[in-house]
Amino acid sequence: MQRSQPLKAAYWMAGAMASFSLMAIAGRELGGLLDTFEIMMYRSFLGVFIVVAVGNFAGTLGTIGFNQIKLHALRNVSHFVGQNLWFYAVTIVPLSQLFAFEFSAPLWVIVLAPIFLGEKLTATKAFAAVLGFTGILIVARPGYVEVDPAIIAAAACAIFFAGTTMATKKLTGTQSTTSILFWLVVMHSVLGLVCAGFDGQIAVPEGMEIVLVAAIGVCGLLAHFCITNALNLAPATVVTPLEFLRLPLIAFIGFVLYQEAFEWPVIVGAALVLAANTINIRAENARNKQIAARTA
């Protein structure tokens, strides 16, 4: 068994936090210059080039096939919708609030997995879901602040990201990482092109816009690469709490770059979401240890 290396995992998670934060900044700066479909289209075009180049270098392009194509399509449509909602929200919603909503995706997996994956909803998972959604209500504060379309988009993107997670969980049993990423960027390219060109007009990025689109494309892939490496070095119980450190980081960035105030309801609500996810991860880790002990 590989020895856990939490310090090295922390370094990789620092890279993931920086990548996610840069992607959020680039998305905010592109607001009003390109619509979300155009951002997704250009990002995916770049992604195709990167995935094919890396796959060719690693010799894994041969693992790409058409088996499970329907599940790939379901996963990528869900991710496409969620990512477009995220890019729409990032131009309007305070960055810390958006990230807090995004962190609720694992809680939606708890709720939806028994329906779509046949997983058992335990009392611990149910408690974690209730605790986490209480945190989301505190972040959204319905009745105290106006719940506009951007807030709804920020909350809804987590549901579609949860759908992506569940589909990915099923795909990893038979599909390589290269195959999953290849179909992701190819299908997103097609969906982005169709949606961006639906009105007969597609804006072409110029100057700094090209740099921002490239940053979104590279940082998106780099963030997931960093998280994957971190998970290979340390268990999820160590890695996931580190991922939540990007909330105070993005709150600081929002304060410095966009004069976004620190809001205690967002911090308190996000803390409840973090606690809920930690409870769920520890329960899952304990269950896996029990299964391993029985089969040993």
Could you walk me through the main structural features you see in this protein, from its secondary elements to its overall organization?
The protein is mainly α and 296 residues long. It has two domains: 1-33 and 205-256; 65-175 and 263-296, no CATH class. Helices cover 78% and strands 0% of the residues. It has helices at 6-30, 36-58, 69-90, 95-102, 105-116, 123-140, 149-171, 177-196, 208-233, 236-243, 246-258, 264-295. α4 (95-102) packs parallel to α12 (264-295) and α5 (105-116) crosses α7. The longest helix is centred in the C-terminal third of the chain and has 32 residues, at 264-295. The protein is globular and about 60 Å long.
In short:
This protein is 78% helix and 0% strand.
Structural shape: globular
Radius of gyration: 19 Å
Low-confidence residue ranges:
none
User: Strand tally, please?
Assistant: 0
Question: How big a fraction of the residues is strand?
Answer: under 5%
Largest sheet: none
Q: Report the average pLDDT across residues.
A: 88
Structural class: mainly alpha
- The figure for the number of domains is 2
In whole angstroms, the N-to-C terminal distance is 14 Å
Number of helices: 12
Share of helix, binned: over 70%
- SSE pattern, N- to C-terminal: HHHHHHHHHHHH
